[in-house]
Amino acid sequence: MPWIDAVYGRTQEDITNLTSKAFFNVVDWVRIENNTVYVRAVLNVLRSLNIEYNVVSEPDISTIPSADDINQFVDNIEHLRIIASLPVSSGIVVLKTDWLGVTSAPTVDFEVVNDWERNLQIIKNLTISISTYLVFCGVASVGQSRLWQNRFRNMFILPSRYPVRRARMLGSPVGSGLVRQNKFRRYDL
After folding, report:
1. Continuous segment of H or E residues that includes residue 115
2. Largest CB tally within 10 Å, which of 2, 81, 130, 178?
3. Sequence spans of domains, the chain
């Protein structure tokens, strides 16, 4: 699914004037759900992750999402925010995921929905722009093959007839002397 432009410019004037932004309907739900799936796919690909996802049933004009549906819906966005681990200075906010289905509880308003869509927009934009700075590398190899590189590794310890202590450094970097630092480094040859 392609990214659908997020709408997060809802204001109190839209609510009082009953503009098209004043109503949260099925189209808005589907757009946010689609953008959540899109951001999840971007994070999966760019960070090589397999992000968990709560499957939420798509509402239609005859159904109203329950508080549990909204909580699962928002939990998907919140989980992406946590996985993206973007700084607060980017404008991203923590989302509430414990909405209650009782009449006396606070309800979702236009500012909360703006936060949902703004978080998705920020995660998408920053994750894609950050990906240009990532360095992907495999196993580093320089010079000769590993067999050739390891040829001389055992030569730093001279053979001796009895166990001795040998310093692995030429000088004591800090604190106690070489003998005390190398107290337990014994090489039996």
Report:
1. helix 110-130
2. 81
3. 12-133, 157-187
